[in-house]
Every structure is written in structure tokens, then in C-alpha cells.
Amino acid sequence: MRQSILQALFLFLPAYTATMAPVVAKRFHLFSSLAWPLDRGLLLHQQPLLGPHKTFRGIIVGILAAIGTAALQRLGAQRSDFFSSLSSEPQLLYSPILWGSALGGGALLGDLVKSFIKRRFGIPPGRRWFPWDQLDQVIGALLIGQLLYPFSLATVLILLIVTLLLGLVVNIGGYLLSLKEAW
Fold first, then answer.
1. How far apart are CA 69 and CA 47, in angstroms?
2. Is 80 helix (H, G, I), strand (E, B) or coil?
3. How far apart (Å, rounded) are the C-alpha atoms in residues 125 and 128?
4. Which of 12, 42, 54, 66 is the most exposed place for a label (fewest CB within 10 A)?
5. Bridge partners of residue 37, in order along the sequence
6. DSSP 8-state symbol, 124
7. Share of the chain above pLDDT 90, in %
8. What is the pLDDT of residues 55-86, one digit of tens each?
């Protein structure tokens, strides 16, 4: 069971880094020239479409981080028995650009959809929305990643449960380290 959990988490590392990279880029003022809102200030029923915190910088940095992570995973699998034992078929079957873009883009798309829905319910940016704040990235990455590779039910369940728990820990840690405004 422990090996299955580690493999599932390793498989989804590009999705996780895709959603963490925009927070780090914002915190350290990286690529500030790209920090303009995706929705360009558009309103729907007098509510922001997504909100000013969903930026082009976030999408670009997130996908690049996911691709970089997938490339490092591939390199690790080729050079280390430990990383090779954690690697799954899609990580070795698809190029890091394709696999990283699918999981990273899917995770970010899941986050954007969740933000859109939050705005429709009048929930302001940064306000917690449990459990969707933790699961949006996994659901998005699973849906897009599924186009390339059929995930097993066990992998899906592991990812949903462990991500929910890890998401809480990471969000609280990010808040305590002043990387996030809310946990």
C-alpha cells in the first residue's frame, strides 16, 4: 500500500508543482510583467469572471514547472533505481513536455474552474472552500491526464484522499510561512 501511495504521488508531482509554482512566483515577484489577470477584469453578473489573482504568469509558470518536474522525473527514473521504482508507465511513455503539460495544465484548469464557480457563489478570492480548494487540481489533472493514460481506480482514490490530507497540511504550512494569505 505504501508503494502504491508513493507511486501515485510521484505520478502526480507535475500537477502539484504546477499549482504551487504560481504562489512561489508571486511571493518572490518573479515574471511580474506577466502578472495580469486572465479574465482582464471581465464581470459576469457583477462578479469577476475569475478574479485578479488568476494571471497569465500563473499559467505560464505553472505549466513550465510541471514540464520541468516531468523532465526531472524522467531523468531520475533513468539514473536511479529508487526513482525508477516510483515511475509509472505514462511518465516513461510520454515526453516530459506532453505529460507535464497535460497534468500541469489540467491541474491549473481545475483551479480556474473552481475559481469561476466560487465567484458565482460570491466566495471571494483567497477564502477557503473545503474540500474543493484541495481537490480541484487533482480532478482537473485526472480529467486531462485521462486523455493520455487510463488511471486505475486505486490511483484515483489514493490521489483524492491523500491530496485532500496533504492539501490541508501544505496550505496551513504555506500560511504559516507567509506564502499564502489564507489556509
1. 35
2. coil
3. 9
4. 42
5. 55
6. P
7. 73
8. 999 999 999 999 999 999 999 999 999 999 99
